[in-house]
Amino acid sequence: MRQVTLLGATGSIGLNTLDVLARHPDRFAVHALTANRQVDPMIRLCFEHKPRYAVMADPDAARELAERLPAGLGVTVLSGCEGLEQVASAETVDVVMAAIVGGAGLRPTLAAARAGKRVLLANKEALVMSGALFMDAVAESGAELLPIDSEHNAIFQCLPPDHIRDPDGAGVRRILLTASGGPFRETPVASLASVTPEQACAHPNWSMGQKISVDSATLMNKGLELIEACWLFNTGPGRIDVHVHPESIIHSMVEYLDGSILAQLGSPDMRTPIANGLAWPERIDAGVGSLDLFELGRFRFERPDEDRFPCLTLAADAFRLGGTAPVVLNAANEVAVRAFLNGHLKFTDIPVIIEKALERQAPVAAESFEVIFEQDAQARQLAWSIVEAQA
Ligand code: NAD
Ligand code: MG
Predict the structure, then answer these.
(1) What is the CA(192)–ligand 2 centre distance, in A?
(2) Is 222 annotated as a binding residue?
């Protein structure tokens, strides 16, 4: 029986993970569920999944949860970042699903990695922020880092298991990272400035949290994924080609020196990569049905339009610049997306804010997590001031 901690249980990845776990009560038990401040959904999840711990990042929400949960349920309520780190690193825990959105996920995900857990990484922002240091922490503790992002999980499945971080040894020529293109792939450029948060969050193929939905619409999601792939598979952006594939059935591909291209296909359903990570190297039912390729008929591929969607280029440039540039990129993006969702910023101003933040906060060496957290906080402040000036 494997004990699972679920960071970000009330979110889109969190709920999909619980769906898979509930199909295999003989294999997995829920040790802890965590959320930011959504008390009602957390109460429902505690009744359904009976974790030993429930953690609310927000202390007021934790107090309310503790008051409202019946003592007889046997759930201990913890709060704050310490609570998150505690359930991510507890001795009895085998698997940690890292599904908090944004930089807030870095500390608890790092705690799981340092404690040598199987870390199922959905929280791409954590790796974008701390790349080399995070991978070092994984290597030092012997943690098992398995990608849950559908593209990275696909690449992982297309690589030989003993050469995941050794593209040369595996004979890899390049990685083909697929992208849906998001909801505005065909929207006239002139209309992009006036798109609404509702339109941006209405992804054609995937149902996801708001932040990643906006990232998919700006293509920053692909930019963050490009950086994520560089760290996970020990390669550079020059060896990764983004292919827009509007059907979202091929989740990514690996091309080898002999010309072979291996691909992983499946319905756009996150339960597939989640089940893959939970059971790896075994296979378990994810609740995902068979794919009807006859119904689908054909696959399309297009080059990404980097003039229309500058975020992809901004991300690749930040990775190449190195040091804390990706920290600034990520922080400014989180701030700009929040401002857009709140109605304070135009969609087309998101890359403008990021570019200005990158210009004004020069990267420094990412020599410690302290530096990363400092630079992150500074970049968020800077980005808010740029948003205010822009508005
Ligand atoms: P979501 O917004 O649906 O859920 C986020 C979860 O994080 C919630 O449980 C929320 O309570 C928690 N949370 C938010 N802020 C927090 C904070 N400050 N402290 C502690 N907890 C906090 O997001 P999602 O779509 O499930 O995405 C989660 C992560 O997985 C993101 O990094 C995203 O990029 C990645 N991801 C998601 C998908 C998807 O299909 N949704 C696919 C690939 C990768
Ligand atoms: Mg993805």
Answers:
(1) 23
(2) yes
